[in-house]
Amino acid sequence: MRVKLLRVTKDGLELIANAARVSGFSDRVDIQSVAKMIVDNDYSSVLEHIYFTFDIENISVALSRELLEHRIASHTARSTRYNEEDSFGYYIPREIRRDKNALKAYKRAMDRANDAYKQLRVLGFMREEARYVLPMALHTRYVVTMNVRSLINFFMLRLCVRAAPEMRELAKKMYKLCLDAYPTIFEHIWCRGVTLGVCPENDARPVICPFRDIVFNKNDTKFGVEEAVREIIHKDLRRRK
User: Fold this and answer.
1) Beta-carbon neighbour count of residue 59 at 10 Å?
2) What class, spelled out in words, does domain 2-76+143-196 have in CATH?
3) Catalytic residue chosen out of the listed positions 71, 108, 158, 238
4) pLDDT value at position 223?
5) What residue segments make up the domains of the chain, in order of their start?
6) N or C terminus of the chain: which is more exposed, having fewer CB within 10 Å?
């Protein structure tokens, strides 16, 4: 997997600081402080003015489908309709690589798919018809443009240890590029538990989570206060009537 930063909004901190001042941020507060306050307090609409465009190579088609779940972004994927996929490369899951027999069976399945694709092409079928035998593991290329607000959401979800391994690998590579470009914005961003201060994964958190003994579960922080919170909400609703 390779990830390249094609383009990023220049002078982004100044841009979001100017946008924030429309809503009353003082001109006497420096740009770095404004940016940090925006991120820390989740005044995130102004972060949408900064865009990143990534060129992503050698990810699986399966992963590209997951990327489409992040809808507030611009997506362009390699077309199997217009590109020849003879002798295609493919993704191998980490656990399968560790098992000799599983790896052998996996590679055999990829070879059969490749042979079937080539045979269909020899028989005169078009790429758009032959492509249906291609596996989800097929390597593809992807260009995606996301604003910073969407990227933060992406990182909170995909840097979690429970994220799919290939997706987490991609998120880490994208995160490093974002951190290098705008450390003031991204230095305190990671998974949801780290970014929000509580982990919504709760009992689903695996023992391998490095923050398990540092960041509380969301359910733990709610324990004993739910009834009081609900009563306050109901009082507010009755008052509004």
Assistant:
1) 25
2) alpha beta
3) 158
4) 75
5) 2-76+143-196, 81-133, 200-241
6) C
